[in-house]
Each structure stands twice: as C-alpha cells, then as structure tokens.
Design goal:
The protein is an alpha+beta fold and 340 residues long. It has 2 domains: 87 residues, no CATH class; 231 residues, Bira Bifunctional Protein, Domain 2 (BirA Bifunctional Protein, domain 2, 2-Layer Sandwich). Helices cover 40% and strands 17% of the residues. It is built from 11 helices and 10 strands. Strands 1, 4, 5, 6, 7, 8, 9 and 10 form an 8-stranded mixed β-sheet that branches. Bound molecules: 3,4-dihydroxyphenylalanine. The site of 3,4-dihydroxyphenylalanine has 12 residues, from β7, β9 and β10.
Length: 340
Amino acid sequence: MKERIDGLRAAFNEALAKATDAAALEALRVEFLGKKGHIAELMKGLRDVEDKKTAGQLINTLKNEVELAIANAETALKEAEIAAQVRSAKKYNPTLTFGRETGSYHPITLATREVVEIFETMGFTVENYDEIVDDYKCFEALNIPKHHPARDMQDTYYLENGQLLKTHTSAAQNAIMKKYGAPLRAIFPGRCFRNESTDACHENTFFQMEGMMIDENISISNLIYFMKTMLSEVFKRDVKVRLRPGFFPFVEPGFELDINCEICGGDGCPSCKNSGWLELCPCGMIHPNVLEEGGIDTEKYTGFAFGLGLTRLAMMRYGVKDIRDFNSGSLKSLSQFKSR
Ligand code: DAH
C-alpha cells in the first residue's frame, strides 16, 4: 500500500508541474480527488489491507497534500493572470479627458442676453450696477421717504453699516440719471433681494431688468410700444398681456403689465398664484420728483421706466414651473439649457 501511495504522490507532483492552466488543474483534481479518482480507489483498497489505521493515515496525508497543492496552484495562476492584465493595461495619460462635461449657461443668463440684445438694437445702453446700495438710492431718491408704507412690500437684508441689498433695479435710476442726464435710454439688469417667504413664484434672490427712456415728448404710447416690441421679440409670437393701473411711488401714472401664464395657459396654477396672470413688467411715467432728484429738467423732459421681472420672464420663456429651481444648483434641471 505504501508504495502505491508514494507512486501516486510522485505521479501527482509530476502532473502538477505540467498543469499550467485552470483546465489542467481541474482535470488533475478530478483524477485524484474525484468520486472515482485515485484517492477513492485507495480508500476502496483499504478493505484488503491489514494495518488499516496506518494505511488510512497515509491516504489522508496524500489527500490533504493534493488538495493543498491544487489550491495553491490555482491561487498562483490567478495572481499571474492579474499581473499580466496590469502589465498589458494602457499607461495613465494625464492629457486624456474622461467624458468631461461641458457647462451650460443659466436660463436667466440666456433670457437676459436675449432681452439686452433687443434693447440694444433700439438704442438703449446697458449699465451694470451695484447689488449693495444705500437707503437713499433704493428708496428716498425714488420718492419713497422713510416710513412710507410702500417700504413694507420691499423688506430686505441690511448690513451693519446701514447699507442694504437692493430690492429692485430701480435703485440705479438716480445714479444713471446723474451720470448721463437727458436725453437718456438705458437698461440695467441686476440681481435683487427681498426678505420674504418663498413659493413657486417668489424667491429671496431674483433678477430684474430696469429700463428708462427720458427725452422730450415721451408719453405712455412710447412706453406701450417698447413693451410690446420687447415681448413679441422675446416670445417670437403674440402673447396675451394686460395693462392695468398699479401704484409705485416713483411713477405717475403707474401700470402693471401682466402676461398670461404660459405654464397653465391662463387656467391658474401655483406658478401664477392661481390667477392665470403673472406680473411681468410693472412700468409707468417717471414721477417728476424722481426726475428732479436725478437732476433732470422736468419743464423740458418726461420719461418712462419699467422693471422687467427677468426671472419670471425666464420661467415663462422656458416653462420653468418653480422659481426656486433657478437657485437650486440642480445640474439635472440647469444642464437642460445648453450654451448659446
Ligand atoms: N421696482 C418695482 C418693484 O420691483 C418695479 C417697477 C415698477 C419698476 C414700476 C419700474 C416702474 O421702473 O416704473 O416692485
């Protein structure tokens, strides 16, 4: 029995040395450890052996050796495979780009550019203006003295030095009148802030575009003409608008220019506070007090002003239902607007 076992061990070692792939190892495993393999045969042969205990131990030792040797060979084979893969893999190339995403413009940027272009072709200059202003520019110069109830509508964020985040682009009117004098045609888009609770059509941070035209004989007809032209250019089709009286201390008369809600088609939805209309562009004839405060001769000149809600325009233009999506930083929604 012992010789048989030693012979098998030698045969196994020889075959193992030649087994260089997984299939060969598996064949060897079946040949020695399988149901009808050499080890099973040896076990069967035990019947005819006298010293069963010693012979059984020898068979077990061989069995353990074979199992261990095959397992080690399999591990070595896998390691060699991985090493070969690593060796053949392409080398790291720092200049390669891995599916790099390109950015897109924010929808408000796109809407602003569009409106700016339209007004530029009508001879308006484009002004850039501060976001932090003083009480005079934001309110007093606009005929809104301290304690005027109109201030209730425009609570904002105050700095320790008394300055504030501007609540409307109208805050630049005074400085621009002083800078250019009359006649004057200017637009000034900008970010505005209000300390108020948010909903689908109100945000604490939003964009407006103010416009002013001051010249001799400017009337409400000029105002209506410019507003109509702008809207038909932006929407490239007729949109339903309505003009109704509105009160703003810095214009007289003042109007609310509402647009039919493009989200619900006028039926009413959260985006338009269920009214079917959205206040898009309040406007009016500049109040003489405001002109005078800006150093304009009110005997000679009149003018109109408007405050276009750029964020609301972008909502209507692109069908964005919730104003809060704009500041959400959600790439999923923002990346839909490709660069232009
Ligand atoms: N500044 C006003 C607001 O944000 C909007 C406004 C109304 C601007 C009438 C104007 C105007 O220029 O004429 O509530």
